[in-house]
Structures are given as structure tokens and as C-alpha cells.
Design brief:
Length: 321
């Protein structure tokens, strides 16, 4: 089918790693058998590369077999994991029909919300837990809202940007901190020196992983959701990591926590995330909308980390103007 794009979202995490050239696929190739990455002169990616994975649009045309495959009708509002483009050709099985949204731009957050929900499923918070969310970008702010629905006692939000800390408080964070505030010490003071039950690291800043290890309590869980593009000179595995026995969990959206058992699947998670799009307070995350004709300035906003930026949306053909 052909989907005419109305809006697409620029990812400040994964996409910026690709944009800046720090993603491993620019210099390595992943072996499909061993699942290992190897340095190579013929990496997985090369220029030119069409990228992006958060597009909202309307079904423009159906292929001959689309209807029999359960495709949505022409005119349906859908989300696709498609690159930034005015039109995309997609398979019927790859289209997500969006729920009724007051603002269709919210649909570009479908992938982010899927990732955030996966982080909660990997973290498996319990009633009464103290959970720290390190990094209050789109995914971190989605996490704050999701965690408040799980019955945790306290959500602590950590970010260097005041605007994002204010949004976290709006969404239910009981405590907000700057990473320069001595996070591990503040959380110990908050918890009678236990430390956090769970720290979810989603900032993408490599020093934040080190602080997450320091912040979590004995045998606690550090859930790593970031795709780090930098280096790890600041990472210390000789102190708190060795003596406090934290468990570090990689939460990658391509899979589901096996501890959840056979009743959970990626498709079930996607369906739940789609329902949540219409239930959570996501409008405040859409801080900038830029027409496709001025897309270079949109990338500059995200690359330079504008102080009031959370999610930058690209609009097409005057949509939303």
C-alpha cells in the first residue's frame, strides 16, 4: 500500500546516533548467524541512507492483495516505521492503525511508547518500589507516566534540563534531580540508605550508566534502554558494581522479557502501546513542529539539544499548519 505522510518524528536518541555517525552499523557488519558485530570495510550501512522510523500518514492507495491481507481502508490514519518521506510503500502487516487522537501528531510517538512500555516490562516494578528514571526525553517522560500506573511508591526523574524536570513532575515524578545534584547520595537519603529498587537509564549519556550503578540498591535492577554512541572511560566496575551486586538488563524493543511467560508477545505489547497513545498525556512532548521544506533546521534543533526541545515533528504538505 502507499501511505501519504502527514507527520514524522526525529528521534533524539537512536536517529542522532545514526545522524552523527556514531552508530556501529557505519563501521561494522552484524553476522546473522552469530549475532556478533565485526569491524569491516563493507559495513551494514553506507551513504546515501534513507532513515527515520516514526511516520504518521493516511492510506493513499491499496495494492491488489492488500484487502485480503487485512489492510486498513483508504483514508485510514496509520503509523509506520518508515523513513522521512512524503510517501512510503509499506506492507499491510507493517501498518499500525492509530486510535482516535485529538492531535494526529501524537501518533509519531508510537515507536517511543513501545520502547518505554518494553522498559517497564523488563524492569518489572513492584508495588511500593522506588524507581529512578535517568534521562527525561520522550521515552523517559513516557516512562514516568507508565510507572505511576504500576503502583510504585516514588518515581525520581533525573535530567539536566529544567523544562524536562518540570514535565516529569507534571506527569507524576515525586522527586526531580539534576545529574549534577549527587543522584546516588540523594536517593540514599530518600530511601533510608537502601538505594533505588530500579534505575532505568535512558539518557544515552555514558556517565549516566555509572551513576545508575551507584544509585541502585543491593541486588537492584539497572535497566539500560539507551543506545550508547560514545565511550565508557567513566564506567567503574570495581566499586558499587562489584560489592552491591546490581543486575544490568538490556531492554531492546525487538524482544519481550522472557520472564513474562508465553502469554506475552511483541504483538501484544504493540497493541497495548497503541491503546495507551490515546490515554497518556503526550501532547506536551510535541514541542516543535517544522515543515519538511525547513528540515535542515529541524535536525539542527535536535542535534544541538535546544533547551525547550522534547520531540521535534516534521510536517508535510501543510499538515497541521
Amino acid at each position: 500500500m502507499i501511505v501519504r505522510t502527514l507527520f514524522s518524528g526525529i528521534s533524539a536518541g537512536t536517529e542522532m546516533n545514526v545522524f552523527r555517525g556514531s552508530a556501529p552499523q557505519w563501521r561494522t557488519r552484524r553476522d546473522p548467524t552469530t549475532k556478533l558485530f565485526f569491524e569491516t570495510t563493507s559495513p551494514d550501512w553506507s551513504y546515501p541512507l534513507a532513515y527515520g522510523y516514526a511516520a504518521v500518514g493516511k492510506v493513499e492507495r491499496l495494492g491488489d492483495a492488500a484487502a485480503s491481507l487485512g489492510a486498513p481502508p483508504v483514508g485510514a490514519l496509520v503509523f509506520t516505521y518508515s523513513p522521512h518521506a512524503s510517501f512510503n510503500v509499506v506492507r499491510a502487516s507493517d501498518v499500525v492503525v492509530l486510535p482516535a487522537l485529538d492531535d494526529p501528531r501524537v501518533g509519531v510517538l508510537s515507536a517511543n511508547l513501545n520502547t518505554a512500555l518494553n522498559g517497564v516490562l523488563d524492569a518489572r516494578p513492584s508495588f511500593g518500589d522506588v524507581v529512578v528514571v535517568s534521562g527525561l526525553g520522550v521515552i523517559g517522560l513516557c516512562l514516568v507516566q507508565l510507572l505511576r500506573r504500576t503502583g510504585v511508591s516514588v518515581v525520581v526523574g533525573v535530567d539536566a534540563i529544567e523544562h524536562r524536570r518540570q514535565l516529569a513532575q507534571r506527569f507524576g515524578a515525586k522527586v526531580v534531580l539534576s545529574p549534577h545534584d549527587g543522584v546516588a547520595e540523594k536517593v540514599r537519603a530518600l530511601t533510608g540508605n537502601r538505594g533505588a529498587d530500579i534505575v532505568i537509564e535512558v539518557s544515552g549519556a555514558t556517565p549516566a550508566l555509572n551513576e545508575a550503578i551507584r544509585t541502585v540498591g543491593y541486588n537492584g535492577r539497572v535497566v539500560v534502554m539507551s543506545w550508547y554512541g560514545g565511550t565508557f572511560e567513566s564506567l567503574s566496575l570495581s566499586g558499587e558494581f562489584h560489592h552491591n551486586r546490581p543486575r544490568i538488563i538490556s531492554s531492546q524493543v525487538g524482544g519481550i522479557n522472557p520472564d513474562l511467560g508465553p502469554l506475552w508477545s511483541v504483538d501484544r505489547r504493540k497493541a497495548l502501546a497503541n491503546e495507551l497513545l490515546a490515554q497518556l498525556d503526550l501532547g506536551p512532548l510535541l514541542t516543535h513542529t517544522v515543515p519538511i521544506e525547513d528540515v535542515a533546521s529541524a535536525y539542527a534543533l535536535v542535534d544541538n539539544g535546544a533547551a525547550d526541545l522534547v520531540q521535534c515533528v516534521i510536517s508535510y504538505d501543510g499538515a497541521g499548519q
